[in-house]
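Design a sequence for this backbone.
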């Protein structure tokens, strides 16, 4: 188990990638001393030449490193704990040993970037809950944790894998010329154990999803007087709606199911995915499983999406789906294969 001070992660930490915030270390070996550094050094030398003080030394010491451009052979930079110290000074060596031990034991606070930790609380039973968000804007270290959480979700629920370059990329489809992260990985831990995950994608439009008896052919609608056998699935481009985000994946570990984690995590997505809160009307879902369709229907209850059938009659949709994930589309009353998926098959 890896520790983040008060924040913890259920994944092993590669300490070579961890950046610490320390008052006692400088990471730049070649940094030149500032005017304040030189002034502090001269004051220190002046004190060394005066009579020793009779006052008792302070019980607590704060180590503040001042590095001058002298013989660099006495300086050593530890790649594990990111500590620069003078090997000829006992106090420096002792301070490094202390920081290094804490680093190895996982007791140093991991640097939390803005937007990484979205929520942190304890429930009535004392269980510790944390919600994290990782995207292309996150550091490589945090992206690794996001990938690990995504991998843990595949151990619970199968699904199509996403190329890492696409996962951590920008898109300007929905926001004009301003690029935004295409995907964001939201994951929740309970007492440092992976509990739930939502993969959200920035999209601009969604359509009606259908799964049932065959009702369209490639040349047009079927004759209702002679319905064919079998079922089909498609997303209609004739009934399209403006949206802001697609919930591409929802996964809750079995032992944490039936606790409302999926609903609360999608709520977090709506609050934090864009520049402001996103209404349920602007949330789409990827091509759902049967359980996913039940969840989407329940989550979007009360949202009024009106579609129009081929006779011009209106009807209500339970939820809308990202067209990019559908194998087939309905376009101008005809069944067509998804060009994106067709292109992927031919590559």
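Sequence:
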């Amino acid at each position: 188990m890896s520790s983040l001070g008060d924040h913890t992660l259920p994944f092993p930490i590669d300490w070579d990638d961890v950046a610490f915030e320390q008052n006692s270390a400088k990471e730049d070996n070649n940094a030149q001393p500032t005017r304040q550094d030189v002034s502090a050094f001269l004051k220190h030398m002046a004190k060394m030449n005066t009579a020793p003080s009779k006052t008792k030394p302070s019980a607590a010491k704060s180590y503040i490193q001042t590095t001058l451009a002298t013989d660099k052979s006495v300086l050593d930079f530890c790649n594990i704990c990111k500590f620069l110290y003078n090997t000829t000074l006992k106090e420096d060596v002792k301070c490094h040993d202390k920081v290094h031990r804490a680093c190895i034991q996982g007791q140093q606070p991991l640097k939390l970037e803005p937007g990484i930790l979205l929520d942190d609380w304890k429930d009535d039973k004392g269980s510790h809950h944390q919600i994290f968000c990782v995207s292309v804007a996150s550091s490589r270290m945090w992206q690794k944790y996001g990938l690990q959480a995504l991998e843990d979700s595949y151990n619970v629920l199968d699904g199509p894998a996403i190329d890492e370059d696409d996962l951590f990329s920008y898109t300007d489809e929905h926001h004009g010329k301003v690029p935004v992260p295409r995907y964001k990985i939201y994951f929740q831990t309970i007492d440092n154990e992976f509990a739930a995950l939502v993969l959200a994608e920035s999209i601009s439009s969604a359509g009606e999803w259908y799964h049932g008896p065959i009702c369209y052919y490639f040349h047009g609608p079927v004759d209702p007087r002679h319905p064919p056998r079998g079922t089909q699935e498609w997303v209609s481009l004739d009934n399209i709606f403006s949206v802001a985000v697609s919930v591409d994946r929802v996964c809750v570990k079995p032992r944490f199911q039936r606790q409302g984690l999926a609903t609360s995590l999608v709520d977090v997505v709506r609050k934090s995915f864009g520049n402001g809160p996103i209404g349920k009307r602007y949330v789409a879902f990827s091509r759902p499983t049967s359980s996913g369709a039940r969840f989407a229907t329940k989550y979007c209850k009360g949202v009024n999406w009106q579609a129009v059938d081929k006779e011009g009659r209106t009807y209500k949709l339970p939820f809308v789906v990202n067209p990019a994930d559908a194998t087939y589309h309905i376009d101008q009353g005809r069944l067509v294969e998804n060009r994106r998926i067709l292109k992927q098959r031919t590559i």
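The helical segments are 35-48, 90-104, 140-156, 164-167, 261-272, 290-299, 339-346.
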